[in-house]
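Posting here for the record, re: flavin-adenine dinucleotide.
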Amino acid sequence: MSFDAVVLGAGPAGYVCAIRLAQLGQKTAIVESKAIGGVCLNVGCIPSKALISASKLFKQIGHADVMGIRVGEPSLDVAKLVEWKDKIVDQLTGGVGHLLAKNGVEIVQGSGRVVEPRKVEVQSSSGIQVVEADNIVVATGSRPIEIPGFHFDGEQVWSSTDALSPKELPRRVLIIGGGYIGLELGFVYKNFGSEVRVVEALDRVLPNMDPELSKEMTKSLKKRKMPVHVGAKAQGYRETAEGLVVTVELNNGKTEEFTCDVILSSVGRSPNGGGLGLEELGVEVTDKGFIPVDPQRRTNISNIYAIGDVTGQPMLAHKGSAEGLVAAAAIAGDTGAAFDPAAIPLVVFTDPEIASVGLTEEEASAQGFEPVVGKFPFRASGRALSLNETDGWTKVIADKHTDKILGVHMIGPEVTELVAEPTLAIEMGATAEDLAMTIHAHPTLPETLMEAAENLHKKAVHILN
Ligand SMILES: Cc1cc2nc3c(=O)[nH]c(=O)nc-3n(C[C@H](O)[C@H](O)[C@H](O)COP(=O)(O)OP(=O)(O)OC[C@H]3O[C@@H](n4cnc5c(N)ncnc54)[C@H](O)[C@@H]3O)c2cc1C
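Prediction output follows.
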């Protein structure tokens, strides 16, 4: 089989790249060892968000009496929940398979290995197939990191994948890792009624985000009675009659034991850059397994490209898809194609939700800007009040001299949707004044962005500046 391009991995980076390649007239094949859609569609973004929506509804039903609605105590059918979630996954992955096929992309099932700069061997249960292509795009993604003492067994120690298909609701969950995946899944189990405890080795939850967001999230976890131990290290566990006893070294140097029914280990993800035959061909792969790339997503070998989680942080589906479009354009001959986004939004579907785009104040200062900050609380938003979700705020950071928006950080209702507006603003080089002067529909949550931008100039109307 001979192609213009072959893509290894059908996650959101790989399948988007393959479809765009086909749209640009390139004869394209895609090799996938597991399931079309990759981590994101099968065991990541989509199934986790399905469970989050269900758990939020479950919690809201339990609290509906504040609005005078009496429905009684909700109960959970775990098997039906997982079946519903699986149906969503099937619908989406089936849709992507259909799109690949209808665009003329050849789908090759099996595990690919690059044996020559223009040759991939695909191993499957039916043997080895050779795929030849002028260009190779590596989009093999990432896998959950296992830490010593906590081997994933799907029963006592869960990876995020296990947490998406529980057989029953565990009474007590201990989560190792206070990053976004651990917290999102923590809220799912908490909303459904489990006791949830979080152990994070660094000094704050969501360590990669704006420190004020971490602080606000810590308050929210406390309010929801989800104990968090920061600067703490889970060392191991043993099985007892009372449950799994996890030994944790706390930040004061003391060791404490916590009993739970299941441990969810969610300490980050490791790139799948190794073992693909790339190093043998002279493609640079870092010790950690990341593949360095140039703005066109080319590796140091000019016809081999890499996109998605395997190229580095941020490991996010939309970042991988955007890289996929650039690589496809470059392969099709667009010499101007380059991955240089002004802004990549980051969203966390906790309760309240979190969204960030652009620089934090510290990053802005480090880059030589003079950051000015405007903030607006959701408790002053009529829409937030009418939704009965008033926790959190919107923060806009702009440069003092140019007024250009540098970053927007939000915690509160629906902020994962609201972040689209400031992402566009940053992408287009808008100023805080642009945001403030844009007429926002009333009553809506994005008004908080307008008011935060106004606050930055000490002109917000609905709070004292
Ligand atoms: C629980 C969870 C929730 C998440 N939520 C979000 C979210 O809300 N938003 C967000 O943006 N991101 C989220 N992510 C991250 C997101 O899933 C990843 O960033 C994204 O899937 C990366 O896409 P990718 O195409 O680079 O790789 P992947 O999705 O990992 O796909 C790579 C594919 O390559 C295949 N493959 C690997 N090696 C080979 C080989 N040798 N031959 C053939 N095929 C191979 C794999 O089977 C896989 O299907 C979440 C992740 C998890 C685990």
